[in-house]
Protein backbone atom coordinates (compact mmCIF):
# COMPACT_ATOMS: atom_id res chain seq x y z
CA UNK A 1 0.00 0.00 0.00
CA UNK A 2 1.22 3.46 -0.78
CA UNK A 3 -1.25 5.91 0.76
CA UNK A 4 0.72 8.89 2.05
CA UNK A 5 -1.92 11.48 2.84
CA UNK A 6 -3.11 11.70 6.42
CA UNK A 7 -6.87 11.20 6.79
CA UNK A 8 -6.99 14.33 8.89
CA UNK A 9 -9.35 12.78 11.43
CA UNK A 10 -7.28 13.65 14.48
CA UNK A 11 -3.75 12.50 15.33
CA UNK A 12 -2.85 9.19 13.72
CA UNK A 13 -2.12 6.37 16.15
CA UNK A 14 0.05 3.36 15.32
CA UNK A 15 -2.00 0.30 14.34
CA UNK A 16 -2.27 -2.56 15.24
CA UNK A 17 -2.05 -1.79 18.94
CA UNK A 18 -0.62 -4.08 21.63
CA UNK A 19 -3.01 -6.21 23.65
CA UNK A 20 -2.90 -6.33 27.42
CA UNK A 21 -4.83 -9.61 27.36
CA UNK A 22 -4.80 -12.31 24.67
CA UNK A 23 -8.57 -12.80 24.76
CA UNK A 24 -9.61 -9.15 24.72
CA UNK A 25 -9.24 -6.34 22.18
CA UNK A 26 -6.65 -3.58 22.60
CA UNK A 27 -7.87 -0.88 24.97
CA UNK A 28 -7.11 1.73 22.29
CA UNK A 29 -9.71 0.14 20.02
CA UNK A 30 -12.49 0.52 22.56
CA UNK A 31 -11.39 4.05 23.48
CA UNK A 32 -11.41 5.27 19.87
CA UNK A 33 -14.76 3.64 19.07
CA UNK A 34 -16.32 5.51 21.98
CA UNK A 35 -15.19 8.75 20.34
CA UNK A 36 -16.77 7.93 16.97
CA UNK A 37 -17.23 5.34 14.25
CA UNK A 38 -14.14 6.38 12.24
CA UNK A 39 -10.63 7.32 13.45
CA UNK A 40 -7.19 8.02 12.00
CA UNK A 41 -4.45 5.41 12.24
CA UNK A 42 -0.95 4.75 10.95
CA UNK A 43 0.03 1.30 9.67
CA UNK A 44 3.50 -0.24 10.21
CA UNK A 45 4.53 0.63 6.64
CA UNK A 46 3.72 4.32 7.21
CA UNK A 47 0.35 4.31 5.44
CA UNK A 48 -2.21 6.73 6.88
CA UNK A 49 -5.67 5.15 6.98
CA UNK A 50 -9.22 5.85 8.02
CA UNK A 51 -9.96 3.12 10.58
CA UNK A 52 -13.66 2.18 10.67
CA UNK A 53 -14.66 1.09 14.18
CA UNK A 54 -18.46 1.15 14.63
CA UNK A 55 -20.71 -1.73 13.59
CA UNK A 56 -23.06 0.27 11.38
CA UNK A 57 -20.21 2.21 9.78
CA UNK A 58 -18.32 -1.04 9.15
CA UNK A 59 -21.29 -2.75 7.51
CA UNK A 60 -21.82 0.30 5.30
CA UNK A 61 -18.14 0.38 4.34
CA UNK A 62 -18.02 -3.33 3.52
CA UNK A 63 -20.93 -2.96 1.12
CA UNK A 64 -19.99 0.37 -0.50
CA UNK A 65 -18.61 -0.16 -4.05
CA UNK A 66 -16.85 3.22 -3.82
CA UNK A 67 -14.48 1.64 -1.30
CA UNK A 68 -12.57 -0.71 -3.58
CA UNK A 69 -10.19 -3.50 -2.60
CA UNK A 70 -9.00 -4.26 -6.10
CA UNK A 71 -5.99 -1.97 -6.38
CA UNK A 72 -4.83 -2.82 -2.85
CA UNK A 73 -5.20 -6.62 -2.86
CA UNK A 74 -3.15 -7.91 -5.74
CA UNK A 75 0.15 -9.01 -4.26
CA UNK A 76 0.37 -8.55 -0.51
CA UNK A 77 0.78 -11.99 1.13
CA UNK A 78 -1.19 -11.01 4.21
CA UNK A 79 -4.24 -10.21 2.15
CA UNK A 80 -4.65 -13.87 1.30
CA UNK A 81 -6.45 -14.16 4.63
CA UNK A 82 -9.70 -12.91 3.12
CA UNK A 83 -10.52 -16.11 1.28
CA UNK A 84 -12.96 -14.21 -0.91
CA UNK A 85 -13.59 -15.54 -4.41
CA UNK A 86 -15.07 -13.03 -6.80
CA UNK A 87 -17.08 -14.34 -9.73
CA UNK A 88 -16.24 -12.07 -12.68
CA UNK A 89 -18.98 -10.28 -14.53
CA UNK A 90 -20.23 -12.39 -17.41
CA UNK A 91 -20.40 -11.24 -21.00
CA UNK A 92 -21.41 -12.60 -24.36
CA UNK A 93 -18.26 -14.69 -24.68
CA UNK A 94 -18.47 -16.53 -21.36
CA UNK A 95 -21.87 -16.92 -19.76
CA UNK A 96 -22.36 -18.58 -16.41
CA UNK A 97 -25.21 -21.04 -16.64
CA UNK A 98 -25.28 -22.27 -13.07
CA UNK A 99 -23.21 -23.32 -10.08
CA UNK A 100 -20.07 -25.03 -11.26
CA UNK A 101 -20.30 -23.62 -14.80
CA UNK A 102 -16.93 -21.90 -14.29
CA UNK A 103 -14.01 -22.64 -11.95
CA UNK A 104 -15.37 -19.88 -9.71
CA UNK A 105 -18.76 -21.57 -9.59
CA UNK A 106 -17.11 -24.88 -8.80
CA UNK A 107 -15.23 -23.34 -5.87
CA UNK A 108 -18.38 -21.69 -4.55
CA UNK A 109 -20.32 -24.96 -4.76
CA UNK A 110 -17.64 -26.85 -2.81
CA UNK A 111 -17.64 -24.17 -0.09
CA UNK A 112 -21.43 -23.93 0.12
CA UNK A 113 -23.36 -25.21 3.16
CA UNK A 114 -24.04 -28.41 1.25
CA UNK A 115 -20.35 -28.75 0.44
CA UNK A 116 -19.47 -28.24 4.11
CA UNK A 117 -21.94 -30.97 5.10
CA UNK A 118 -20.17 -33.41 2.80
CA UNK A 119 -17.02 -32.85 4.85
CA UNK A 120 -18.74 -33.23 8.24
CA UNK A 121 -18.25 -37.03 8.62
CA UNK A 122 -14.53 -36.78 7.86
CA UNK A 123 -14.23 -33.79 10.21
CA UNK A 124 -15.98 -35.67 13.02
CA UNK A 125 -13.68 -38.66 12.57
CA UNK A 126 -10.61 -36.44 12.66
CA UNK A 127 -11.82 -34.67 15.81
CA UNK A 128 -12.25 -38.06 17.47
CA UNK A 129 -8.80 -39.20 16.39
CA UNK A 130 -7.14 -36.01 17.65
CA UNK A 131 -8.95 -36.12 20.99
CA UNK A 132 -8.01 -39.79 21.42
CA UNK A 133 -4.37 -38.80 21.01
CA UNK A 134 -4.73 -35.90 23.43
CA UNK A 135 -6.36 -38.14 26.03
CA UNK A 136 -3.61 -40.72 25.63
CA UNK A 137 -0.91 -38.07 26.03
CA UNK A 138 -2.57 -36.96 29.26
CA UNK A 139 -2.71 -33.58 30.97
CA UNK A 140 -1.43 -30.99 30.78
CA UNK A 141 -1.90 -30.78 27.03
CA UNK A 142 -1.61 -27.92 24.57
CA UNK A 143 -4.98 -27.46 22.85
CA UNK A 144 -3.33 -25.68 19.93
CA UNK A 145 -0.93 -28.53 19.17
CA UNK A 146 -3.50 -31.29 19.76
CA UNK A 147 -6.62 -29.81 18.11
CA UNK A 148 -6.71 -26.19 16.94
CA UNK A 149 -3.74 -26.46 14.56
CA UNK A 150 -4.00 -30.00 13.12
CA UNK A 151 -7.78 -30.09 12.57
CA UNK A 152 -8.02 -27.29 9.96
CA UNK A 153 -4.91 -28.65 8.26
CA UNK A 154 -6.69 -31.95 7.66
CA UNK A 155 -10.08 -30.48 6.74
CA UNK A 156 -8.67 -27.84 4.40
CA UNK A 157 -6.37 -30.45 2.89
CA UNK A 158 -9.34 -32.74 2.30
CA UNK A 159 -11.30 -29.91 0.70
CA UNK A 160 -8.47 -28.90 -1.61
CA UNK A 161 -7.25 -32.40 -2.36
CA UNK A 162 -3.77 -31.86 -0.92
CA UNK A 163 -1.99 -35.21 -0.43
CA UNK A 164 -2.07 -36.26 3.22
CA UNK A 165 1.71 -36.18 3.59
CA UNK A 166 1.83 -32.52 2.49
CA UNK A 167 -0.98 -31.06 4.60
CA UNK A 168 0.99 -30.01 7.66
CA UNK A 169 3.63 -28.41 5.43
CA UNK A 170 1.00 -26.53 3.41
CA UNK A 171 -0.69 -25.26 6.56
CA UNK A 172 2.61 -24.11 8.06
CA UNK A 173 3.46 -22.11 4.94
CA UNK A 174 -0.08 -20.77 4.56
CA UNK A 175 -0.10 -19.61 8.18
CA UNK A 176 3.13 -17.68 7.67
CA UNK A 177 1.49 -15.66 4.86
CA UNK A 178 -1.15 -14.25 7.23
CA UNK A 179 0.88 -11.23 8.35
CA UNK A 180 0.12 -7.54 8.60
CA UNK A 181 3.37 -6.34 7.03
CA UNK A 182 4.94 -8.64 4.41
CA UNK A 183 8.30 -10.15 5.34
CA UNK A 184 10.93 -12.18 3.52
CA UNK A 185 9.47 -15.27 5.19
CA UNK A 186 5.89 -14.53 4.10
CA UNK A 187 6.90 -13.73 0.53
CA UNK A 188 8.98 -16.91 0.38
CA UNK A 189 6.02 -18.95 1.66
CA UNK A 190 3.75 -17.46 -1.00
CA UNK A 191 6.27 -18.31 -3.71
CA UNK A 192 6.60 -21.91 -2.48
CA UNK A 193 2.86 -22.42 -2.28
CA UNK A 194 2.28 -20.89 -5.71
CA UNK A 195 4.78 -23.29 -7.22
CA UNK A 196 3.26 -26.24 -5.34
CA UNK A 197 -0.35 -25.51 -6.34
CA UNK A 198 0.67 -24.82 -9.92
CA UNK A 199 2.31 -28.26 -10.09
CA UNK A 200 -0.77 -29.97 -8.64
CA UNK A 201 -3.04 -28.25 -11.16
CA UNK A 202 -0.79 -29.44 -13.98
CA UNK A 203 -0.64 -33.09 -12.85
CA UNK A 204 -2.70 -35.50 -15.00
CA UNK A 205 -5.07 -37.98 -13.32
CA UNK A 206 -3.26 -40.98 -11.85
CA UNK A 207 -4.82 -43.31 -14.44
CA UNK A 208 -3.87 -41.15 -17.41
CA UNK A 209 -5.34 -38.10 -19.18
CA UNK A 210 -8.69 -39.82 -19.75
CA UNK A 211 -8.94 -41.18 -16.21
CA UNK A 212 -11.14 -39.92 -13.36
CA UNK A 213 -10.36 -36.63 -11.66
CA UNK A 214 -8.22 -36.58 -8.57
CA UNK A 215 -10.20 -35.86 -5.40
CA UNK A 216 -10.75 -32.39 -4.01
CA UNK A 217 -10.95 -28.90 -5.40
CA UNK A 218 -7.56 -29.03 -7.11
CA UNK A 219 -8.47 -32.18 -9.01
CA UNK A 220 -11.81 -30.76 -10.10
CA UNK A 221 -10.28 -27.47 -11.20
CA UNK A 222 -7.59 -29.32 -13.14
CA UNK A 223 -10.21 -31.55 -14.74
CA UNK A 224 -12.33 -28.54 -15.73
CA UNK A 225 -9.33 -26.93 -17.40
CA UNK A 226 -8.53 -30.08 -19.39
CA UNK A 227 -12.12 -30.72 -20.47
CA UNK A 228 -13.34 -27.22 -21.13
CA UNK A 229 -10.18 -25.34 -22.03
CA UNK A 230 -11.24 -22.60 -19.60
CA UNK A 231 -9.73 -19.18 -20.17
CA UNK A 232 -9.26 -18.53 -16.46
CA UNK A 233 -5.49 -18.04 -16.01
CA UNK A 234 -3.71 -20.65 -13.91
CA UNK A 235 -2.32 -17.87 -11.70
CA UNK A 236 -5.87 -16.82 -10.81
CA UNK A 237 -6.72 -20.37 -9.77
CA UNK A 238 -3.51 -20.56 -7.74
CA UNK A 239 -4.43 -17.32 -5.96
CA UNK A 240 -7.84 -18.76 -5.05
CA UNK A 241 -6.20 -21.88 -3.64
CA UNK A 242 -3.73 -19.76 -1.65
CA UNK A 243 -6.51 -17.70 -0.14
CA UNK A 244 -8.54 -20.74 0.80
CA UNK A 245 -5.51 -22.48 2.32
CA UNK A 246 -4.59 -19.42 4.39
CA UNK A 247 -8.09 -18.54 5.55
CA UNK A 248 -9.23 -22.12 6.06
CA UNK A 249 -6.35 -23.00 8.31
CA UNK A 250 -5.97 -19.81 10.27
CA UNK A 251 -9.54 -18.73 11.03
CA UNK A 252 -10.56 -21.97 12.73
CA UNK A 253 -7.28 -22.10 14.67
CA UNK A 254 -7.85 -18.56 15.99
CA UNK A 255 -11.48 -19.19 16.94
CA UNK A 256 -10.64 -22.41 18.78
CA UNK A 257 -7.53 -21.00 20.44
CA UNK A 258 -9.34 -17.94 21.77
CA UNK A 259 -12.80 -19.46 21.98
CA UNK A 260 -12.15 -22.36 24.34
CA UNK A 261 -10.71 -20.14 27.13
CA UNK A 262 -13.72 -17.83 26.70
CA UNK A 263 -16.11 -20.79 26.99
CA UNK A 264 -14.32 -22.03 30.11
CA UNK A 265 -15.14 -18.80 31.93
CA UNK A 266 -18.64 -20.27 32.42
CA UNK A 267 -19.00 -24.05 32.80
CA UNK A 268 -22.66 -23.99 31.78
CA UNK A 269 -21.77 -22.25 28.52
CA UNK A 270 -19.06 -24.81 27.78
CA UNK A 271 -21.48 -27.66 28.58
CA UNK A 272 -24.03 -26.28 26.10
CA UNK A 273 -21.89 -27.72 23.30
CA UNK A 274 -22.63 -31.29 24.34
CA UNK A 275 -26.08 -31.31 22.69
CA UNK A 276 -27.26 -30.00 19.31
CA UNK A 277 -29.82 -27.23 19.28
CA UNK A 278 -30.30 -23.45 19.20
CA UNK A 279 -27.99 -22.86 22.18
CA UNK A 280 -25.07 -24.61 20.50
CA UNK A 281 -25.69 -22.87 17.17
CA UNK A 282 -25.96 -19.52 18.93
CA UNK A 283 -22.70 -20.11 20.77
CA UNK A 284 -20.87 -20.81 17.51
CA UNK A 285 -22.00 -17.40 16.24
CA UNK A 286 -21.05 -15.72 19.50
CA UNK A 287 -17.58 -17.27 19.43
CA UNK A 288 -17.08 -16.13 15.85
CA UNK A 289 -18.25 -12.63 16.79
CA UNK A 290 -16.14 -12.48 19.93
CA UNK A 291 -12.92 -13.96 18.53
CA UNK A 292 -13.00 -12.20 15.11
CA UNK A 293 -10.65 -14.63 13.28
CA UNK A 294 -9.56 -11.78 10.99
CA UNK A 295 -9.61 -8.60 13.14
CA UNK A 296 -9.62 -6.36 10.06
CA UNK A 297 -11.01 -6.62 6.56
CA UNK A 298 -8.77 -6.06 3.57
CA UNK A 299 -7.80 -2.41 3.00
CA UNK A 300 -9.99 -0.39 0.65
CA UNK A 301 -9.25 2.60 -1.57
CA UNK A 302 -11.86 5.36 -1.81
CA UNK A 303 -12.37 5.82 -5.55
CA UNK A 304 -14.52 8.90 -4.83
CA UNK A 305 -15.48 10.93 -1.78
CA UNK A 306 -17.45 8.83 0.72
CA UNK A 307 -19.43 10.12 3.71
CA UNK A 308 -19.13 7.71 6.63
CA UNK A 309 -19.57 8.08 10.37
CA UNK A 310 -20.02 11.84 10.16
CA UNK A 311 -16.79 12.26 8.18
CA UNK A 312 -15.88 12.65 4.55
CA UNK A 313 -13.32 10.13 3.35
CA UNK A 314 -11.68 11.90 0.39
CA UNK A 315 -11.06 10.18 -2.90
CA UNK A 316 -7.70 8.38 -2.74
CA UNK A 317 -7.95 7.61 0.98
CA UNK A 318 -7.02 4.18 2.30
CA UNK A 319 -9.76 2.71 4.51
CA UNK A 320 -9.30 -0.15 6.97
CA UNK A 321 -12.34 -1.76 8.61
CA UNK A 322 -11.93 -3.19 12.11
CA UNK A 323 -14.20 -6.24 12.20
CA UNK A 324 -13.10 -6.89 15.78
CA UNK A 325 -14.21 -3.45 16.94
CA UNK A 326 -17.48 -3.61 14.99
CA UNK A 327 -18.32 -6.98 16.55
CA UNK A 328 -17.88 -5.48 20.03
CA UNK A 329 -19.87 -2.30 19.42
CA UNK A 330 -22.39 -2.00 22.29
CA UNK A 331 -24.69 -0.02 20.00
CA UNK A 332 -25.28 -3.32 18.21
CA UNK A 333 -24.44 -5.85 20.94
CA UNK A 334 -25.35 -5.00 24.56
CA UNK A 335 -22.75 -6.52 26.91
CA UNK A 336 -20.55 -7.23 23.89
CA UNK A 337 -17.84 -9.06 25.85
CA UNK A 338 -20.31 -11.71 27.03
CA UNK A 339 -21.16 -14.90 25.12
CA UNK A 340 -24.95 -14.82 24.85
CA UNK A 341 -26.24 -17.61 22.60
CA UNK A 342 -29.77 -16.24 22.78
CA UNK A 343 -28.70 -13.38 20.50
CA UNK A 344 -28.99 -15.78 17.56
CA UNK A 345 -27.26 -13.17 15.42
CA UNK A 346 -25.50 -14.25 12.23
CA UNK A 347 -25.00 -10.66 11.11
CA UNK A 348 -21.72 -10.23 12.94
CA UNK A 349 -18.93 -9.14 10.62
CA UNK A 350 -16.34 -11.87 11.22
CA UNK A 351 -16.93 -13.13 7.67
CA UNK A 352 -17.35 -9.68 6.13
CA UNK A 353 -20.55 -8.58 4.41
CA UNK A 354 -22.07 -8.00 1.01
CA UNK A 355 -20.20 -9.13 -2.09
CA UNK A 356 -17.07 -9.69 -0.01
CA UNK A 357 -18.68 -12.17 2.39
CA UNK A 358 -16.25 -15.03 3.04
CA UNK A 359 -17.21 -18.03 0.94
CA UNK A 360 -15.75 -20.40 3.56
CA UNK A 361 -18.16 -19.35 6.33
CA UNK A 362 -20.20 -22.57 6.26
CA UNK A 363 -17.05 -24.69 6.45
CA UNK A 364 -15.71 -22.72 9.44
CA UNK A 365 -19.03 -23.03 11.28
CA UNK A 366 -19.09 -26.78 10.68
CA UNK A 367 -15.50 -27.27 11.88
CA UNK A 368 -16.04 -25.23 15.04
CA UNK A 369 -19.25 -27.09 15.85
CA UNK A 370 -17.65 -30.51 15.45
CA UNK A 371 -14.47 -29.57 17.34
CA UNK A 372 -16.24 -28.00 20.32
CA UNK A 373 -18.94 -30.67 20.51
CA UNK A 374 -16.31 -33.40 20.55
CA UNK A 375 -14.17 -31.55 23.08
CA UNK A 376 -16.99 -30.84 25.55
CA UNK A 377 -18.28 -34.41 25.41
CA UNK A 378 -14.86 -36.03 25.80
CA UNK A 379 -13.53 -33.63 28.44
CA UNK A 380 -16.45 -32.23 30.49
CA UNK A 381 -14.06 -31.13 33.27
CA UNK A 382 -11.65 -29.33 30.94
CA UNK A 383 -10.01 -26.23 32.42
CA UNK A 384 -7.04 -24.01 31.70
CA UNK A 385 -3.75 -25.19 33.15
CA UNK A 386 -2.45 -21.62 33.36
CA UNK A 387 -4.03 -18.26 34.25
CA UNK A 388 -5.77 -16.55 31.33
CA UNK A 389 -3.24 -13.75 31.32
CA UNK A 390 -0.44 -16.28 30.73
CA UNK A 391 -1.81 -17.12 27.27
CA UNK A 392 0.41 -15.43 24.69
CA UNK A 393 -0.32 -14.46 21.08
CA UNK A 394 1.82 -14.84 17.98
CA UNK A 395 2.95 -11.35 17.05
CA UNK A 396 2.89 -9.81 13.59
CA UNK A 397 -0.08 -11.68 12.20
CA UNK A 398 -3.21 -10.15 10.71
CA UNK A 399 -5.14 -12.44 13.04
CA UNK A 400 -3.08 -12.85 16.24
CA UNK A 401 -3.51 -16.43 17.43
CA UNK A 402 -2.55 -18.03 20.75
CA UNK A 403 0.81 -19.79 20.69
CA UNK A 404 -0.28 -22.33 23.32
CA UNK A 405 -3.42 -23.02 25.34
CA UNK A 406 -2.42 -25.49 28.10
CA UNK A 407 -5.40 -27.42 29.52
CA UNK A 408 -6.12 -30.11 32.13
CA UNK A 409 -9.09 -32.36 32.80
Automatic annotation (TrEMBL):
<dbReference type="InterPro" id="IPR036396">
    <property type="entry name" value="Cyt_P450_sf"/>
</dbReference>
<comment type="similarity">
    <text>Belongs to the cytochrome P450 family.</text>
</comment>
<dbReference type="Pfam" id="PF00067">
    <property type="entry name" value="p450"/>
</dbReference>
<feature type="region of interest" description="Disordered">
    <location>
        <begin position="1"/>
        <end position="23"/>
    </location>
</feature>
<dbReference type="InterPro" id="IPR002397">
    <property type="entry name" value="Cyt_P450_B"/>
</dbReference>
<dbReference type="GO" id="GO:0005506">
    <property type="term" value="F:iron ion binding"/>
</dbReference>
<dbReference type="GO" id="GO:0016705">
    <property type="term" value="F:oxidoreductase activity, acting on paired donors, with incorporation or reduction of molecular oxygen"/>
</dbReference>
<dbReference type="GO" id="GO:0020037">
    <property type="term" value="F:heme binding"/>
</dbReference>
<dbReference type="GO" id="GO:0004497">
    <property type="term" value="F:monooxygenase activity"/>
</dbReference>
<dbReference type="InterPro" id="IPR001128">
    <property type="entry name" value="Cyt_P450"/>
</dbReference>
<protein>
    <submittedName>
        <fullName>Cytochrome P450</fullName>
    </submittedName>
</protein>
